[in-house]
Amino acid sequence: MNRRTALTALFAGASAPLLAACSSGITSLDGDGSGGDTGSSSGGLTIGTANFTENQILGYLYAGVLKAAGIKTTVKPNLGSREIIVPALKGGDIDLLPEYQGSLLLYLDKNAKDTEAGAMQNALAAVLPASLEVLPYAIAEDRDSFAVTRETAEKYGLKTLADLTKANGKLVFGAAAEMQKRVVGVVGLKDVYGVEFKEFKALDSSGPLVKGALKKGDVDVANVFTTDVDVAANKWVVLEDPKSLVPAQHIVPLIAARKADGKVRKALARLGNVLTTSELTELNRLVDQDKKDPDRVADAWLKKNGLVSA
């Protein structure tokens, strides 16, 4: 499904309900997650996901634990980038989406300086509109990273992002289109490290386009996720980030506050306490390399870990 088709399906007949509630500012997974219960999930939840494998898997994991808690769910996968799905959540066309702390914070506040998970959770609660809420963040984390082939690393002496300045004006950067305007992207690489690229190629987020381009040499630097198993498989060099351009990126549920009742909070907190970074990486491998369906991969993992009935 392409982005246009996905959006047409998403917004067709949308009721755009009014939203009213406030964010609780939960900062950890401690406790049962039932504080600040002002919403109701009785009418069910619609979960939206971004247009890359991991986010789709997370959407189905969310759906599985919520269904096990007796909540009706619908998953609308592959809707597009954050610039598309967060406004859809604000508008009431979806109710819940899997997010990443640091990237979400910088999307909401481009001048945000926090990089530690707890501090970012508080910062998110402060900048989100009253209609939205972040629930406790998960153990699992997936950061953006910038990778080069071993040959490119050796040619230019690249170990860190700062080293990219040695090749200013010579390298082609490949990433999703929105990375051209993001702090964790072209903007931050220039402002924080002084990096300037020969060209930017709009491809995808740690997907087949950007990874294929890196393999072929069509791009020299690629934006890939730290849970992407192809990084190790291809022996790519992930450049170190000594100035902490990329903040912590724990998985965090972003939800319409009107839907954030006790059952939802407990179900998602339980998932977050169990899902680790290594297990999320393995789920990505099953879909990307073994070509399994993300909904089935999510369901099998939930059953294996006792989060839904076998």
Textual characterization of the structure:
The structure is a single chain. Helix 2 crosses helix 10, helix 2 packs across helix 12 and helix 4 runs parallel beside helix 5. The protein is 39% helix and 14% strand. The strands form 3 sheets. It has a 5-stranded mixed beta sheet, sandwiched between helices. A 3-stranded antiparallel beta sheet has the order 3-10-4. A two-stranded parallel ribbon has the order 1-2. It starts with a helix and ends in a 6-residue tail after the last helix. The chain folds into 2 domains: 196 residues, Periplasmic binding protein-like II (D-Maltodextrin-Binding Protein, domain 2, 3-Layer(aba) Sandwich); 95 residues, D-Maltodextrin-Binding Protein, domain 2 (3-Layer(aba) Sandwich), CATH 3.40.190. The protein is globular. The chain is α/β, with parallel strands linked by helices and 310 residues long. The chain has 12 helices and 10 strands. The N terminus is likely disordered.
What is the CATH class of the largest domain?
Alpha Beta
Number of DSSP helices? 12
What's the N-to-C terminus distance?
31 Å
Q: Report the uncertain regions.
A: 1-37
For the biggest β-sheet, the strand order reads 7-6-8-5-9
Write down the Rg: 19 Å
Q: Beta-sheet strand percentage?
A: 5-15%
Write down the domain tally. Answer: 2
CATH topology of the largest domain: D-Maltodextrin-Binding Protein, domain 2
